[in-house]
Write a structure and sequence with these properties.
Oligomer: single chain
Number of strands: 32
Largest sheet: 7 strands, mixed
Strand content: 15-25%
Distance between the termini: 50 Å
Helix content: 40-55%
Number of helices: 30
Strand order of the largest sheet: 5-7-22-13-6-12-11
Shape: elongated
Structural class: alpha/beta
Length: about 850
Amino acid sequence: MAIVTESLVQMIAKQVDEKGLVVWYDPEQAYCTAAMELRLPNTTVARYDGSFLKLRKEIDHLLNDNQPPRLVVYVPMERTQTDSALIELDCAGVIMQPRQQPPACNTRLSVVGRNALKQILGDDQVSEIERQVESGKLSLADLNSLAEQGIDISTGVLKLIFGSAHPQEVALAFLHSEKHDEEIGKKDAQKELRHLLQINFDIELSVLEALSKWRSKFGRHVLLTDLFAALKKQVPSSLSAVPVAQSTGGIDACVRLARTWRNSRDMRDSYAVSANKVEQELALSQLEFPEELLRKSETFLCVERALLAHVESELLRSATAGLLQLAENRLSRFWADVIPAIQAQWALISAAAEVLIVADRVGKALKRAPTTMTALVKAYADDDEPWCLLDTHHRHMETRKYNFEFASNIDHGGLEKLITKAEQRYTEVGSELARHFITHFQKAKHPIKGLLRQRDIFEKQVKPHLSEGKVAYVWVDALRFEMARELCPLLNDNFKLEIQAAIGTMPTITEIGMAALLPKADESAKVVSVGGGKLALEINGKIIKDRKDRVTFLKENAGVSVFDAKLDDLLPKPTKKVKDGIQNNRLILITSQEIDELGEADNMAQSRLQIDGVLSHLRRGMRVLADHGVNTIVLVADHGHLFADEIGEDMKIEAPGGKVEDLHRRVWVGIGGTSAPSYLRASLSSLGVDSEFDIATPWTFAVFKSKGGGRAFFHGGLSPQELIVPVVVMHSTAKPLAPTTRVQWTLNPGTPKLTTRFFSVQIAGIESESSLFGFEPPKVRIELRANKKCVSVPVSASYGFEDATGEVKLRISETDSKRIEANTVTVMLAEEISQKTVGVYLLDATTEAELAAPLTVDVAISM
C-alpha cells in the first residue's frame, strides 16, 4: 500500500481497535479512492452514496448489540451539512474529520501527509510540501508518489539489502535475524539503517556500537514501548527510567512492529526469544502490573501468566460472563498460540468459569423450582438453558483437568483452588437438585402423565418407523441425557432429528434399563431377583438377564428381521459381514458399552480422557449407518450416571441392610432392614415399577458404603442425571461428502520437536480449485501417532473446538474466501512412548481420510 495512504489507514485502524465505531467525514473528498479501497480485519466499511436511509438500512443490523461494532462509516461531505442524520453514530463512536481533536482523529490531508513524510524526507521538504497541499496543489496520490521518491533517494541502499525500504519491513527483518549484517557492513549502510530506525521508531543508537548491540537494544526498545503503550501511564516505578519511544509516531510504529513480529508465523520464535530475554534482564515477572490493563497487553509471557492468575483470582471471588469471555478470547492470542500449555490453561479456566456461572444460575432457579415432574423434567432437559448444562460443563472441566499437566516448576495454586471451588459448587447444587427431584418424584402419581416412559420407547418410537424403511436401534450404556443433547448439534448436518427426555426404569442399572428398551416391556415388566446379588427384568414371563437374552428376545418379538452389531463394528469402516447384515435386515441393533465400561473400570484418568471420545464414535457410527441405507435411527440409553470427584468418607452412608437383593453405591434393593433420613426408601411398586422389593437411594450425591465399587462413577439411583434418559430420533438427510482434495493444506508444528506432553499444530488451507458455490471447510481432527497408533488426545484450539468430540470446525477467512482461517490446535500425549519420532496427522473427522501428508516430529521428552 502507498505510504501516505497506509499512514491514514493505520490512523483509522487504531481508532477502530480502541473505539469500534468510526464516523469519517471527508468534506474535501480528498480520500474517495482510499475509502473505496479501505479494508480492515473483522471490520465493516460502509460508504454514503447519496442516501442516508440506504446507509442506515445497510448498517442497522450491526447496531443491535450492547458493544459497539467494528464499523467505519465514510461520508464524503461536511458534517454540518448532514442535518444530524448520523447523530446516534456520532455519539456512540468516534468522529474523524479535518481539524478534529484529538490529533489522532484529524484527517486533514496536509497533516496526514506531514506525519507520513517526515519519517522519510527532511523538515524543510516536508514543510514545503505541506504548504502546497494547503494551497490545493497536491492530492493524496501526489503525496504517495513523493513518498516513494523520497524512499528511493534516502534509503536506496537499504532496499538493495532488505528487498524493501519500508521502515516496518526493514526493522522487522533486522530484528528477526543477523543474515543481513554482513551485507550492511559491505555496503557501509549503517548510517542509513540508523537514520531509518531513529526517525521512525524514536530510538537513539550509538554509531560506536555493533549491529548485534543495535539489534538487542532495538528489540528491547520495541517490546517495552509496546508494553508501556498498553499500560498507558500506570508504569511500575522501577521501570520509569527505562528508555522507550516518546513521540506519538514512534510509539505507534513500535506497537505495530511488535504486533507484526509476534503474529508472523515465520518470525514468532525470534520474538519469543527476545521477549523472554528482556523479561529476565528486567525481572519483569517480579513486578506487579495494573490488573485492569493486563488484558490489553500480550508483549511478555510474564504478563500473560499474571493475567492468568488475575482471572483465576477474580473467578474465585465471583464468576462473571465478562471473565469467561476474556478467558475464551485469550485462547487465540500470541502466547496461547506459541505455548500449548498456556492455551490448555485458558481452556481449563474457561471450563471452570462455565461450571461456576451455570451452578449459580441453577442454584437460584432451585429456590423457585417447579414441583410437578413434567415441569421439573422440562427445566432439566428442555428449556432454552436447561439445568443439565451444569453436568455438561462439569464434564468438560473434569476432562480438561485430566488433560492438563500441572507442571512442578509453575505455581498452579490459583488454578487448583478454582477447580476445587467449581467441583464443590457442582456437588452442592447437584445434590440440591437431586434432593428436590427425588422428593417430588416420590410424591408423583405413577406413571407420570405427560412423560415418556423408557418402557414405551420401542412401541412408540421404534415400531412406527419399521414400516417406512430400515431402522437402527442404538443402545448406549450409561449415555446421560446431557451427552446426547450435546451430540445432537453435531449430527444436524446429516440428520433431521428430535431429542426428548424419558423416565428410566428403576433401579437405574444396566440389567434393568437395557431390558426396558425391548418390545412388550410396555405391557409387562417386573424387577426380579436371579440370585447372587443380581436383578433382572421379567417381560411377559421371560427373564432377561444379559445382552444375549436381550438380543434373543428382540429378534423373537420385533416383528421384523433383526441384525445385531456393536458400535466398534461400524468403525472405522464396517466389514462385509456387517454391511450384508445391514443390507438384509429391517431392524439394525447397535450396542455400545464403552461409557459404562470405562467408568466402572475405576481408572478415573483414563475414563475422563476417553468417555467423551464415545460421542465422536457415535457421530461417525450414525453417519456410517446412514451411508448404508438406514433411513431412521433411534438412539437411546439404559440409564445415566453420576461422575464427579472421588467420593470422600463424609459422603458415604450406611445401607438399609436386611435381605439384600442388589447393592450398588447409589442403590439398595431388597426386603427389610432399616430406614434413615439420609436416603429415600420406598417400594418399587409405589414408584411405578412392578416388583416385590423396596428400593433405597441417597437424596443427594452421597453413596452407600459397600465393598468394591467405583470411586467417582456411579448409577442406580434416582437423581435426574441417572433417571432421565435420552431418546433421539433421527431421519437421514446425509448427502455425498464433498471432496477435500481441492484444498491445499499446510501444517506448521509449534515446535520442531515433541519436548513436552503438549504439542500444538497450526492448520491452514487454501482452495486450489475454484468453485462456483464456494467451499465449506471440513471438520478435522489432529492426531499424534506412534507405530500407527493414536497416542494423543485433543485439548483445545484457537477457535471451533468441540468439547464433545475433540474435533475442530474450521472456517473461511473473513478477508479471503479461498482461504481457511489459520487455527492452532493443541493435543496432549496420552501415554508413554518409546519411539524416537511420532507422526502428526490431519484427518477429516467424518471420513477419517488423511487430508495432508503427515509430518514426522522427533521425540525429545522424558515422561
